[in-house]
Amino acid sequence: MGYGSEGNFNEACNLLERQNKKRCIPNPIAYNCILTCLGRKGKVEEAFTILEAMKMDAAANLTSYNILIHRL
User: Fold this and answer.
1) What is the DSSP string of 11-57?
2) Is the per-residue pLDDT at 37 higher than 90?
3) b/e sequence 35-66, b meaning 16+ C-beta within 10 Å
4) Hey, where are the domains in the chain?
5) What is the pTM (predicted TM-score) of this model?
6) Crossing angle between the packed helical segments 62-71 and 44-57, to the nearest 10 degrees
7) CA 66 – CA 9 distance, rounded (Å)
8) What crossing angle do the helices spanning 28-40 and 9-21 adopt, rounded to 10°?
9) Neighbours of 67 (CB within 10 A)
C-alpha cells in the first residue's frame, strides 16, 4: 500500500514478483491494495491489467471487483 500511495506502482509489482519467487504467493489483500491505489490515481486500465495478473496467483474476490467498479 505504501508503494502504491506514493505512485511507485512498478516497485509494488516488483514486490509481488519477489514474493512469488520466494514461493510466498500474494493474497487478494495484497493485490487489492495495489488496485485501490491505481484507482485513486485514475489508472483504471493498469488496474485491470493487475486484475488479470492476479488471476494467476490468487482468486479475485468481491472486494477486487468492487474496487474496479467504483472507479469506473
Assistant:
1) HHHHHHHHHHHTT-PPPHHHHHHHHHHHHHTT-HHHHHHHHHHHHHH
2) no
3) bbbbbeeebeebbeebbebbeeebebeeebee
4) 2-71
5) 0.79
6) 170
7) 20
8) 170
9) 22
